[in-house]
Amino acid sequence: MTNLRSMLLGILTLLVLAGQLYVFWRQSQIMKSQGKSADQQTRLMEAQANILRSQQELTQLQVEWRRYEALGTFYRIAFDLVEEFKKANVQPAAGMPVDFVHTRVRCFAKQDDYSLPSGMMW
Predict the structure, then answer these.
(1) Calpha distance 116→111 (Å, rounded)
(2) What is the pTM of this model?
(3) Degrees, nearest 5: CA angle 58-59-62
(4) Alpha helices (H) along 1-122
(5) Collapsed DSSP state (helix, strand, coil) of residue 113
(6) What is the Cα–Cα distance from 8 to 64, expressed in whole angstroms?
(7) Nearest CA to 86 among 78, 94, 98?
(8) Per-residue confidence at 87, pLDDT binned at 50, 70, 90?
(9) Which pLDDT value is given to residue 23?
């Protein structure tokens, strides 16, 4: 009876040992796959960073292109406006007499013209 118990206990010990070895082996497989996943995640993050850098470069190029396009549009409109002014300026320019007297001096001089005749009050 003791031999049977010892044999059963030995067999159970071997089964538990085999189960533990299987669990350890499975854990090591999982840890290896986690390492591969971490490596893959690192590669993906590097690719994402490269894409972000290229997007930033493209954005800078786009800003430059927009600025150049705005300058080109400005110059095109300016030249078109010059051509329209040339079309509109067909009559000779009329001379305008220039009066270099200050406005206040002219107002005081006019005030005498609009003064009331003597003896009349407001």
Answers:
(1) 10
(2) 0.42
(3) 85
(4) 2-88, 103-113
(5) helix
(6) 83
(7) 78
(8) confident
(9) 95
Q: Provide long-range contacts, Cβ within 8 A and 24+ apart, for 69-73.
A: none
Q: What is the pLDDT of residue 27?
A: 92
Residue linked to tokens 């972000």: 52
Q: How far apart are CA 86 and CA 98, in angstroms?
A: 25
User: Between vectors from CA 100 to CA 95 and to CA 104, what angle results, nearest 5°?
Assistant: 130
Q: pLDDT tens digits, residue range 19-75?
A: 999 999 999 898 888 888 888 899 999 999 999 999 999 999 999 999 999 999 999
What's the token pair of residue 25? 């082996």
For residue 112, what are the CA distances in angstroms to 5, 21, 28, 104, 122? Answer: 142, 123, 113, 13, 15
The two most distant CA atoms of the chain are separated, in Å, by 157
With contact defined as beta carbons under 8 Å apart, do 116 and 122 qualify? Answer: yes
In order of 58, 63, 80, 83, the CA distances from 69 in angstroms are 16, 10, 16, 21
Structure tokens at 89: 């300026």
